[in-house]
Amino acid sequence: AIEALSRKPGQAREESLIATMDEEAKAQVISALTDFDKKDSLVFVKETPKRRKSYDLKDIIISWEATKKGIKIRKSLQSPGLYDVLEALTDFSREELYRFGIQRIEFHF
Does the pLDDT of residue 82 top 60, yes or no? Predict the structure, then answer.
């Protein structure tokens, strides 16, 4: 669709990402996401030197699915980054998560 120049283009509210990983890591992430699905709420606190903000990850992760080589996650853009989310959900350290191949595949408006 083409938008008129006088209008501001819409801003994306969500993104879809693919995370590729080895089979062992994939099994651990799927297990963590399956456990997460069973919870009513999971609060994540993001702290920086200047502020502290709490997020309910149930409001952040819209959906997820297993793929052949990893997982696909649709998440809110008004949120912590995918590494923060995966670190909160799994036993992986940030350094281990950096080994995953993560690609944004789509914005959702």
Answer: yes
Query: Would you say 18 and 102 are in contact if contact means Cβ atoms under 8 Å apart?
Result: yes
CA dihedral 88, 61, 37, 102 (to 10 degrees): -60
The DSSP call for residue 5 is T
Question: Whole-prediction pTM value?
Answer: 0.85
CA–CA dist 19, 28 (Å, integer) = 13
* Alpha-carbon gap, residue 57 to 55, rounded angstroms: 6
Q: Is the Cβ–Cβ distance between 55 and 44 less than 8 Å?
A: yes
Q: How far apart are CA 103 and CA 19, in angstroms?
A: 7
* Residues ≥6 apart with Cβ < 8 Å to 3: 9
Q: Compute the average pLDDT of residues 9-34.
A: 95
Q: Which of 37, 106, 25, 33 is nearest to 69 (CA)?
A: 25
